From TrEMBL:
This is Uncharacterized protein. It comes from the Bacteria.
Length: 87
């Protein structure tokens, strides 16, 4: 999971991340990766994509990330925590 998010975040600008999220509207996991990557770039831009389904999925991913112990997982946990606080 961490590698996909890192690849998405490092290769796409904020504008492209927003396009990525919109293009993957029906693919929940890819949409979530896009939202998480965008939140690392600009939390406020990512907040507009949060709804109940996304919140639930982020909570589930957060639990999985709690089992990982590396810097990428820590960044992702922080991004999710910020998004969940803002919802």
């Amino acid at each position: 999971m961490s590698r996909i998010l890192v690849a998405i975040q490092t290769s796409l600008s904020e504008e492209r991340l927003i396009d990525f999220i919109k293009q993957n509207e029906d693919r929940r996991q890819m949409k979530l990766f896009g939202i998480m990557a965008l939140s690392l770039e600009n939390k406020y831009s990512a907040e507009k994509f949060i709804d109940e389904d996304v919140k639930y999925a982020l909570e589930r991913i957060r639990k999985l990330l709690a089992l990982e112990d590396n810097s990428h997982a820590e960044k992702q946990r922080q991004a999710i925590d910020l998004l969940l606080k803002s919802y």
